[in-house]
């Protein structure tokens, strides 16, 4: 006998390479973390503190299909390294931050760029541009053991043509610095995931496109726009 007034929805999960499931608590996304992408969006890449927005756990989608969303005529791909946390806390020092990492995956921060731009122009929150249905396609998670994600190629092709290309070493804020910063801002915890920003070359997709996202050492992510 439960005193829940509604059936409690299941917690969203991400598939692990070996068939297990990773339960997701929160989704943090860092903005402007590669200098060339920061420039292409019209900003100066400097060492201002990192900034974050959030998607909803239910927005993560391992299906390999991305339904073109409502309301937008300009939906962009952003290939990103996803970092999944096994534990958390507050005020975690950067030199202890990697102890909290469970694993990694390739992810896409799909963006309704036109709507995001309207919100920026009016000083309003970005959620309509970022936190929409199935806005974060994700590949299979790999456990962190034996992986060094401080460097390695991160790329995206669209219908086989190169679009985004960078290296994880080009992040303005490193993975441990992002975790340390987040833990001063929020209580971070097991199940939280971080999308760590995108390299240059973002651009629009249309129905029928196939995005192939790759990061050295991780399972590829192939997503069809439907
Ligand atoms: Mn992004």
Return the CATH class.
Answer: Alpha Beta
User: In percent terms, what proportion of residues is strand?
Assistant: 25-35%
Mean model confidence by pLDDT: 96
At the fourth CATH level, what is the homologous superfamily? Fumarylacetoacetase-like, C-terminal domain
Characterize the main sheet.
Answer: 6 strands, mixed
Q: What letter string, H or E per element, gives the SSE order? A: EEEHEEEEEHEEHHEEEEHEEEE
The gyration radius over C-alpha positions equals 17 Å
Span from first to last CA? Answer: 42 Å
Low-pLDDT stretches are none
- Do you know the CATH topology? Fumarylacetoacetate hydrolase, domain 2
Percent of residues in helices: 10-25%
Using the 3D structure, state the CATH architecture: Alpha-Beta Complex
Bound molecules: manganese (II) ion
Features of the shown structure:
226 residues, alpha+beta, Fumarylacetoacetate hydrolase, domain 2, six-stranded mixed sheet, 18 strands, 32% strand, globular, binds manganese (II) ion
Short note summarizing the structure:
By secondary structure, the protein is an alpha+beta fold.
Folded structure, characterized:
With 226 residues, the protein is an alpha+beta fold. It has one domain: Fumarylacetoacetate hydrolase, domain 2 (Alpha-Beta Complex), CATH 3.90.850. The chain has helices at 35-40, 94-97, 113-121, 127-130, 175-185; strands at residues 13-15, 21-23, 27-31, 51-55, 60-61, 65-66, 75-77, 79-85, 101-108, 111-112, 136-137, 142-143, 153-158, 161-167, 193-195, 203-204, 210-215, 221-225. The strands form five sheets. It has a six-stranded mixed beta sheet with strand order 4-3-15-8-9-12, covered by helices on one side. The model has no long low-confidence stretch (mean pLDDT 96). The protein binds manganese (II) ion. Manganese (II) ion binds at residues 29, 78, 80, 109, 195, 197-198. Manganese (II) ion binds next to loops.
């Amino acid at each position: 006998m439960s005193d829940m007034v509604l059936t409690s929805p299941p917690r969203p999960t991400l598939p692990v390479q070996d068939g297990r499931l990773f339960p997701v608590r929160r989704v943090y996304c860092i903005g402007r973390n590669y200098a060339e992408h920061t420039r292409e969006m019209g900003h100066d890449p400097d060492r201002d503190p990192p900034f974050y927005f959030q998607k909803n756990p239910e927005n993560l989608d391992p299906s390999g299909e991305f339904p073109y969303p409502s309301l937008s005529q300009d939906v962009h791909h952003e290939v990103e390294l996803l970092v999944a946390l096994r534990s958390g806390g507050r005020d975690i020092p950067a030199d202890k931050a990697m102890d909290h990492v469970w694993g990694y995956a390739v992810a896409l921060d799909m963006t309704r760029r036109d709507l995001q731009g309207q919100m920026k122009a009016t000083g309003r929150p970005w959620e309509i541009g970022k936190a929409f249905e199935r806005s974060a396609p994700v590949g299979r998670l790999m456990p962190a053991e034996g992986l060094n994600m401080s460097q390695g190629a991160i790329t995206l092709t669209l219908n086989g043509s190169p679009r985004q290309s960078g290296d994880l070493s080009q992040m303005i804020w490193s993975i441990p610095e992002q975790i340390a910063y987040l833990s001063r801002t929020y209580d971070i915890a097991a199940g939280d995931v971080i999308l760590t920003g995108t390299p240059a070359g973002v651009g629009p997709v249309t129905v029928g496109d196939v995005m192939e996202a790759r990061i050295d050492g991780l399972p590829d992510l192939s997503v069809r726009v439907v």
